[in-house]
Design a protein that fits this description.
The protein is of the alpha+beta class. It has twelve helices and 18 strands. The protein starts with a strand and ends with a helix. Bound molecules: adenosine monophosphate (AMP). The site of adenosine monophosphate has 13 residues, from strand 7 and strand 15.
């Protein structure tokens, strides 16, 4: 089986690693250069979307910000899963909100802005404080504004106006500011036969809008809510593959923040912590194979490595610590790799996170240090 992934980053790389034992071969299409590359070595093995499609049995994607003409060509081939519509919904906050509403899934109150009049209406409709997010192209907290007081309106409008004018299709989605207790996410898979298998929820810590620490948690009540919302969204898209839902937990009630129609950073812990990892399950789903068990096999957390290309070797001396590098060139803030940390039970995992805080740099790994500081209190 040959799977073509749109996008040649770390997610395609990890799909390649997970596909090998199943004899599923991955090639990656770099949408910027038009090259077909080997997802592990990045060596160029071909060129052109049509060539890439011809060689593939199945086409999938590792990110959602993909030009619509590329999606249309892939969809037309009849090989593309989850579907162009699912990818578009993940890449456009207007479509995402409409999808959540259609699926009957709770999300923050919102209003779409393309003009100054809309902005005034949004302030009326949504109220302050609010979060303003560009409909297209924003991720990891980029392309966002926080409007807290009325005296910020003009300055924020000035910036938003430029953002809207930059392309024909851009808009801003104004969202009520949600005062949440924590952020959690659910990663799961839906098969071609409509079967659904979800992983345990992950509790996520973001630093400056970027995920820094993700820990698998057991919470029966929240898990039930999340699974019901996941199934509603996945069924509504007739989704095939791995899908992630990010939530705000507000006093035990979940609100969807956003969806990711792909394998997700908050599911990387499944490589060591679940019976079948998210990358294998995505490939199983899109290749029409039975889904693997999503069962938690040990307490696991994932730490993102941002902007660093080396780690103290002592990390590997801690039992249950696994480093995954992405083979990328070092750049400030860039996702360079992650560490999965496992313990036989929660207490052991927590102890290992505290041990890591003693080894890892405070500025590069703030979430681990924050965890250790709270733990010792
Ligand atoms: P996003 O790019 O939508 O995931 O937003 C990045 C981060 O901003 C989220 O992980 C939240 O911490 C925060 N955030 C996003 N939307 C809201 C909201 N409506 N209310 C409060 N915080 C938000």
């Amino acid at each position: 089986m040959h799977v073509l992934v749109l996008g040649a980053g770390q997610l395609a790389r990890m799909m390649s690693l997970a596909g090998a034992p199943l004899n599923i071969e991955i090639s990656a299409y770099d949408v910027d250069s038009g090259n077909i590359v080997h997802p592990l070595t990045q060596s160029v093995i071909g060129n052109g979307l049509h060539n890439a499609i011809e060689r593939a049995d199945v086409i999938t994607a590792e990110f959602e910000h993909i030009a619509h003409d590329i999606l249309a060509i892939c969809q037309q081939s009849g090989k593309f899963l989850p579907s162009a519509d699912a990818i578009k919904a993940g890449g456009d906050r207007r479509l995402e909100k409409a999808l959540l509403d259609k699926a009957g899934v709770r999300n923050a109150n919102y209003y779409v802005i393309t003009s100054r009049q809309d902005f005034d209406d949004a302030i009326e409709h949504v109220g302050l404080p609010m979060v303003l997010k560009s409909a297209l192209g924003g991720y990891d907290g980029k392309g966002q504004w926080r409007l807290k007081q009325r005296d910020q309106i003009e300055a924020i409008w000035h910036e938003m106006e430029q953002c809207i004018a930059a392309t024909d299709t851009q808009a801003i989605v104004a969202e009520e500011f949600v005062t949440f207790d924590r952020e959690v996410s659910l990663v799961g898979a839906r098969g071609k036969d409509g079967s659904v298998a979800v992983y345990p929820l992950a509790e996520n810590v973001h630093t400056n809008g970027v995920l820094t620490l993700s820990t698998a948690i057991a919470d029966t009540e929240l898990q039930q809510q999340a699974k019901q919302m996941f199934t509603a969204v996945a069924n509504s898209l007739e989704y095939v593959g791995v899908l992630a839902l990010e939530f705000f937990d507000v006093d035990g009630t979940l609100l969807v923040n956003e969806i990711a129609p792909r394998v997700h950073n908050s599911g990387h812990w499944t490589q060591q912590g679940a019976e079948t990892c998210q990358f294998e399950n995505h490939l199983r789903a899109v290749c029409g194979l039975p889904l693997g068990s999503t069962k938690l096999i040990r307490s696991t957390a994932m730490i993102n490595i941002l902007g660093e290309d080396t780690l103290p070797p002592q990390v590997l001396a801690i039992g249950g610590c696994h480093i995954h590098w992405y083979g990328k060139e070092k750049r400030a803030g860039r996702k360079m790799g992650h560490i999965n940390v496992c313990g036989d039970y929660n207490g052991e995992l927590q102890r290992k996170l505290c041990q890591l805080a003693q080894i890892l740099d405070k500025h590069a790994f703030p979430a681990v240090h924050e965890f250790a500081a709270n733990f010792s209190e």
